[in-house]
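Why do we care about 3D structure at all? Because function follows from shape, and shape follows, mostly, from sequence. That is the central idea of this module. The next example makes it concrete: a single protein chain, its amino acid sequence, and then its structure expressed as tokens.
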Amino acid sequence: MNQLDCEELYFLLDSEGSVVAYQEKDQSWAAVLAFSSEQVARKFLKASRLEVAEIAAIDTSDRGALQGLIRTLKRRPIRYLLLDLDYDSGACRQVDFEGDQLGAVRERKLPASHPHKQA
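And the structure:
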């Protein structure tokens, strides 16, 4: 089931305990930010200067916990994960939700946060 090649997913939580979501311009759906390691999450936080209350992890082999999380996220207009979003380049992997499970994974490149930094 783990097509992500990571044992845990790390999520950013705001001060109220909600996961941090990202909505692209002119899109009705949002994505939740997830990271394959705590180090990658901290790198994103440093680059983005986003203030979060904590980083929480979920084991990707814990199907029940993952299904519960996805069901909760889908109550909001969240339909996929953005995995390992690089703040400066916009590179990431989009992981779609299929029902209450993780589905297709594809490479994405969102608009760079700092286009003037690109080579």
